[in-house]
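Anyone able to model this chain together with xanthosine-5'-monophosphate?
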Amino acid sequence: MTNQIVLVLDFGGQYKELIARRVRECNVYSLIKPGQTPLDEILAMKPIGIILTGGPDSVYRDGAPKCDPALFDCGIPVLGICYGLQLMAYSTGGTIAPCKVSEYGRTQMTVDSTSVLFAGLEPRQIGLMSHTDQVAVLPEGFVSVASTVHCRNAAIANKKRELYGVQFHPEVENTPNGTEVIWNFLYRVCGAIGDYDMKDYETRMIAQIREQVGATGKVLLGLSGGVDSSVCAALLAKAIPGRLWCIFVDHGCMRKNEGDEIEAAFRNRDLNFIRVDASADFLSALSGVTDPEQKRKIIGEKFVRTFEAEAKKIGKIEFLAQGTIYPDVIESGANNSATIKSHHNVGGLPKDMGFQGLVEPLRGLFKDEVRMLGRQLGLPEPIVSRQPFPGPGLAIRIVGEITADKLAILREADAIFREEMKKSRIKADQYFAVLTNTRSVGVVGDFRTYHYTVALRAVKTTDFMTCEYAPLSHKLLSRVSSRIVNEVKNVGRVVYDITGKPPATIEWE
Ligand code: XMP
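re: yes, here you go
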C-alpha cells in the first residue's frame, strides 16, 4: 500500500478496532500496532499521525504499558485517547492523579472551538467518559481545550509539538461529534489527503494480486459461501479471470437451499467453480458421534481430505488464496485462553500442499469493509450480509447424534425462523434454530404425539465473545412456533433460549 497511514497504538483499550475503523471512515488508512512497538519500527512505516488508544491501567502503576517517550519528539502528530492522553501528559512532564469524582457515561463538556481539534463544533458537546485518573498538572507547553464539571483537562493541546489528547472517547457513538474530532486531527493536524476508500483498495488489490500471481499463475480457494471467502473469490475472479479455482465442499450440514444459492452467486463469474457433494461421506463419518468437539474434529479433518483430493484433480496450481481479514491478523497469536470450542473454520486448510505462495487480499479489511467491497463487486445481498455460520454448520446445532432425518427437520425449522425474522425486520446479529435431543409428549387432534423440541436462538452482540439474547416480541415468537409445529413433521414443541453468553455460548454445542 502506498496510502498515507495513521498508526493506532494499542494500550489494551476495548475500542482499538473502532478507532481504526473511524480513521478509515475518514478515508485515511489505519493500522493497529502494539503500544510498545519500537520507535524505529514506527518511523519506518512513515505514519502521518499516531493515535494512542485507551486502556485499563494507571500510568503511575509499575508495569503499566508505556511507549518510547521519544515518540512525542519525533515530529509526528499524536492524539492520545483516555489512557493515551494520560500517557502523553505523563511522558511529557505532566502529573496524573486519581479523579475526585470518576466519570462514566455521556458527559457534558465545554470545548474550545478555537482549538483545531474542535474546529466547526459548538462549545457545548457530549463526550463518553470512562476514567478514574485524570491530568492533574498539565505538561509545559500544553493548554486545556475542553473541560467538564469534574475534569479540568478533558482535552489538552500542544499546538507547537502537534500533540493532542482527549479524556473522552471520540470513537464511540455515544460521543455524537467524535468523528469530527478525529477528522479534525487527521485533516487539520496530520495533513491527511483522504486517499483511502474501497474503490482505491480494490484497484490496489487487483494490481497486487496480478503482480503476485504473474501472467499465468493459477489460484485455488476454499469457498464456504461465507462473506470472507465469497468476497475473496469475487475479487480474485476480477483480478485474474479464468485462473481461479474455487472448491466448495458441501458437507451436508448446510442450511436450506444454501448450496444452490452459493453456486448461483458464482455461476456467471469468471472462475472455475467446483461443487463437491460430500454429504453422504460426512454423514457416515459422523454416524453415532454425539460429542461436539468430536463432531468438529471429524468435519474439519474430512473437509481437508476432501479438499485435497479435489485439488489434486485440477493439476498444478501455484497459489492458495484465503479470506483472512484484518481482525484475524490482529488477534492471531494473542490467544492464551482455554479452549471452550475448537473453532476451526472449515476452510482451515493444510499448510503442506506445496503451494508457491499464499494470496490473502482481504488481510487489511475490517468485516464491514469486506461487505462494502462485496457489494462493490456486485455480489448478491444475501451473501454479502450473511450472518456468521459456523464451519461445521448444522452438525453443531443438532444436539446428540446427527442423522439425515434430523438434518431435514432442522433445515425446515431454521428456514421458517429465518424467514420470519427477515420479515419482522428485527435486528439480531445471529439467529438460528437448534434441534434439541429432547422429545416431549403432545396432543394433535385426539392423538398423543412424542416429537422433538426445537429451540430458537437470536442474539445481540458486537464481538461474538459475549452476547445477550434478542428480546423478540411474543407475537413473532408465537408465529414462528405455530408455523414450525404445523409445517415441520416430528416437531412438537418450540422454546426460546433467553440465556446470555456467558454463562452459555451462542451455539448449543
Ligand atoms: P460460541 O458458540 O462459541 O460462538 O459462543 C461464537 C461464534 O462462533 C461461531 N462458532 C463457530 N464458527 N466453527 C466456526 O467456524 C465452529 O466450530 C464454531 N463454533 C461456534 C458461532 O456461530 C458464533 O458466531
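The CA atoms of residues 397 and 434 lie 5 Å apart.
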